[in-house]
């Protein structure tokens, strides 16, 4: 368990909530919280900030460690004056410059970039996928609000052509692109499920459906 994981677990237990309850508040799986607390998963800064708000306690241990290191350096005489701010920037650049990757945030057309997120690069992969296969998509409608996915939220996705039963995808059909849960009916047909003020289903042929990307994680607005 790393120091960030320890702080998450301590704050959660002090708050008196389970991993499942924290996962629901954060909009992630219970497995994500378990792996974060045990140190098996790297938690990015965006998630750390959200966890701090939910738990009512700062868990940004990385920043604290860097500040402590800068303070130590400040006590050592230098031949030329360097500000504390410059030292903090140098520490961050050295620590993360080679391991963070800018991941684009797209609109549904997958051409319009509306921003970027930085994610850790491990073994030349991001979240276990090739770098060129991952991206974020900005949700453009409330069609999936029954799945806690609302307009303005960000979803982390990876491009694929495979269909996994009951998973949520960005798909194209009937001349439009939407987020839909897919349920296989047979080798030729699938059920597309959305949920805005109730469950809505559409049955279409697989050959009429274009799979754009599979959703892996939701980042909600707090």
What does this structure look like?
The chain is an alpha+beta fold. It has three domains: 3-59, Orthogonal Bundle (434 Repressor (Amino-terminal Domain)), CATH 1.10.260.40; 62-96, no CATH class; 135-219, Umud Fragment, subunit A. It is built from six helices and eleven strands. The protein has helices at residues 3-15, 19-26, 30-38, 45-55, 61-74, 84-96, and strands spanning 100-106, 113-120, 125-126, 129-130, 134-138, 154-158, 167-173, 176-184, 189-195, 199-205, 210-219. The strands form two sheets. It has a nine-stranded mixed sheet, with no helix packed on it. It has a two-stranded antiparallel ribbon with strand order 3-4. Strand 8 and strand 9 form a beta hairpin. Helix 1 (3-15) packs across helix 3 (30-38) and helix 2 packs across helix 3. The chain starts with a helix and ends with a strand. Residues 62-76 have low confidence and may be disordered.
How would you sum up this structure in a few lines?
The chain is an alpha+beta fold.
Provide the fold topology.
Layout: H1 3-15, H2 19-26, H3 30-38, H4 45-55, H5 61-74, H6 84-96, E1 100-106, E2 113-120, E3 125-126, E4 129-130, E5 134-138, E6 154-158, E7 167-173, E8 176-184, E9 189-195, E10 199-205, E11 210-219
Parallel strand pairs: 1-5
Antiparallel strand pairs: 1-2, 3-4, 5-6, 6-11, 7-8, 7-11, 8-9, 9-10
Helix pairs in contact: 1-3, 2-3, 5-6
């Amino acid at each position: 368990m790393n120091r960030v994981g320890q702080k998450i677990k301590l704050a959660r237990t002090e708050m008196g909530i389970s991993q499942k309850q924290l996962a629901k508040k954060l909009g992630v799986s219970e497995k994500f919280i378990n792996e974060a607390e045990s140190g098996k998963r790297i938690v990015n800064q965006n998630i750390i900030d959200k966890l701090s708000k939910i738990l009512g306690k700062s868990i940004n241990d990385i920043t604290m460690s860097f500040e402590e290191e800068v303070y130590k350096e400040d006590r050592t005489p230098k031949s030329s004056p360097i500000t504390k701010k410059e030292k903090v920037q140098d520490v961050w650049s050295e620590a993360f410059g080679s391991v963070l990757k800018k991941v684009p945030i797209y609109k549904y057309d997958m051409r319009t970039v509306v921003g970027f997120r930085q994610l850790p690069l491990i073994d030349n992969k991001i979240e276990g996928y090739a770098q060129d296969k991952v991206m974020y998509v900005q949700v453009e409608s409330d069609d999936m609000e029954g799945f806690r996915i609302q307009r303005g939220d960000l979803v982390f996705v990876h491009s694929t052509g495979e269909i996994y039963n009951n998973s949520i995808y960005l798909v194209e059909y009937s001349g439009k692109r939407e987020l839909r849960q897919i349920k296989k009916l047979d080798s030729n047909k699938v059920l597309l499920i959305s949920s805005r003020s109730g469950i809505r289903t559409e049955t279409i042929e697989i050959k009429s459906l274009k799979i754009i990307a599979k959703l892996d994680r939701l980042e909600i607005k707090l």
